[in-house]
Write a structure and sequence with these properties.
The protein is mainly α. The protein has a domain of 92 residues. The protein contains six helices and no strands. α1 crosses α3, α1 runs antiparallel to α4 and α5 runs antiparallel to α6. The longest helix has 41 residues. The N and C termini lie far apart (43 Å). The relative contact order is 0.10. The model has no long low-confidence stretch (mean pLDDT 89).
Length: 132
């Protein structure tokens, strides 16, 4: 019978299982956060920034930022909320966001929304998605 303490395959197998689980968890967490950011952006865009409420919306954003930063930290700054609204403007279809978020990180989306030309933005999103 093999001595488990000296058999290198068992610890190596367990290490691989742990690393694989961590990787899957990170990908899943990224996809969930990306979808959350999209939903937050959509909610702000729909409820605060549309039509005649734009000036009112600016005031609401300031108050919203204060509350969110106080409760959840700097990740909810005005700049970040603006990125989330722009995210929805650039990627209005939630199903597309869900599909892409399985392959692209939030950082990728932030870079993509900075591309003004929609055709270029879509090209780079698909190219990055294929390269993964």
């Amino acid at each position: 019978m093999k001595d488990i303490a000296t058999d290198a395959s068992l610890p190596a197998d367990i290490k691989q299982l742990i690393q694989s689980a961590k990787q899957r968890a990170a990908v899943s967490l990224n996809a969930e956060l990306t979808l959350l950011y999209w939903q937050v952006g959509r909610r702000i865009a729909e409820e605060v920034l549309k039509g005649e409420r734009a000036e009112y919306g600016k005031q609401v954003i300031v108050g919203l930022v204060k509350r969110l930063v106080a409760e959840y930290g700097r990740g909810w700054s005005k700049r970040n909320l603006s990125n989330r609204v722009k995210f929805v403007e650039c990627f209005p279809d939630q199903e597309i966001v869900q599909t892409l978020s399985a392959q692209l990180s939030w950082s990728h989306f932030v870079l993509l929304v900075s591309i003004e030309n929609p055709l270029k933005r879509d090209f780079y999103a698909q190219a990055r998605n294929k390269n993964r």
